[in-house]
Write a structure and sequence with these properties.
The complex is a heterodimer of chains A (296) and B (182).
Chain A: H1 13-16, H2 19-34, H3 41-57, H4 62-87, H5 94-97, E1 102-109, E2 116-122, H6 123-143, H7 146-149, H8 155-161, H9 166-195, H10 207-212, H11 215-238, H12 256-279, H13 288-295
Antiparallel strand pairs in A: 1-2
Helix pairs in contact in A: 2-6, 2-12, 3-6, 4-6, 8-9, 9-11
Chain B: H1 11-33, H2 47-58, H3 60-78, H4 84-98, H5 110-138, H6 143-180
Classes of the chains: A mainly alpha (296), B mainly alpha (182).
Chain lengths: 296, 182
Amino acid sequence: MLVTWKYRPRNTFIQRLDPRTRFIFMACIIFALTIPEIWDYRIILPLFLVSLTLYLMARIEWKDVRRAWIYIFILVFFIVGLNGMLSGRGGPSSVVDLASPVVFEVPFMVPGTDWGWMVPVTVSKLWFALNQITRMICMAILAIPIPYTMDPNIYGTAFKRMGASDNVSFTMDLAFRFLPTFARDLTITIDAQRARGYEMEKLKGGLIAKIRRLAPLIIPVTMQSTVTGEEVIDAMDLRAFGTAPRTWLKDLKYAPRDYFMIGLGVALFVTCCVLKWGFGIGGFFVPEFFTNFIMG
Amino acid sequence: MNDKSTWEFGTRQVVYGAIGAALYGVFSWATNIFPLPAAGNVTFRPAVAVLIFFGAAYGPWVGLLAGFIGNTLGDMLTGWGFYWNWSLGNGLMGMVPGLVVGALNDFKARPTIMKAVGWGTLGIAVGMLFASLTEMFVGGIDLNTALVGYFTPAFIGNFVVTAILLPILMIAFAGVAARRGR
């Protein structure tokens, strides 16, 4: 078992951006959709296209992200989409308040009885579910490329330059450095326990027994790490950690492209706020073409 | 057992915050590779017991940082991206048991273990409730989906592993700390 970072240098526009720019831009898009509560497809779709363009510009291979996408699709389509389609809840109240034609009804019956109720799926609920799925994917596709395109060694510096304290930033930096060590310790522990007859793939017994049987793997690695911690604390204390502000080996500087992206993100956020609160554009409504398409 | 100044944030907290985060990340990732058989959409993440343990043993800052950074690391290793509200929820989950770090002295004693499990459970409730409820704003889901689809499975799964593994971790730690003498 080897811990491998998903990150690979790719010489793309996305990777040339300052990491702070990417966090700020992602925050701008999330805030643009959530703070003014945008549910209008005429705004969601352009934002989705911007996010999709940036995602494609990251040039991540499908085999790398396939697993993440499957997880996100299951979550978005089955939990969020299905719920939006059946209940119409989770967004503006106009979804269920609108007088909308019923497309079909889903029966929810108590098994073995004729007691239950019919849940109407309306055009309004269908359109809402589509909007909600697009809205969520719009935010997710900005988050997914981060592990693949951001150097793990830069996180500590990035958080420091975004205003976090030395202690918090150094914790983050140190965590990235400890990770391969503990992964190796876990591998050694698994091998050692297997040599003693521990069968990892055959965790027999009930649920509680299964969890308890993970203890021979978790306890040794955790206890060893607490001992390692004391040695690291001694080493850091000897170097007077925490007595004065730290300097950081890696330096981050904004380039013109970073100012452009931050400006774009802020402009999108401000536009969404002005459209919603200034002009009343951005609320939920069902376009006529969708009703015609569904109802024939 | 350790310096019990609850809100102190020095070298010890930095180092154990980082260690807790790295362990949480590694164990989360490892159990993604070797998933624990579970029912329905209830997922079990044994790493949560380690996170609660670090909060209870080293204080709220360590729990908060271990949860926030550890969840970020675990998601990054599996390639799921960065979801700030779930990372912060995990941070709160580690922070809450750390609030009673001053009252947890003898890690072998049954009352101490019960107290740690109790506060750990409160931490799970607070952290997962925060993450689930913020999904209402971030993801546009409704309260029912947040509570039934997200909070309940996360709470049940995390509570079960904490109730089983945290006492074992605490007893093992008491032995290690006694040998170390600090």
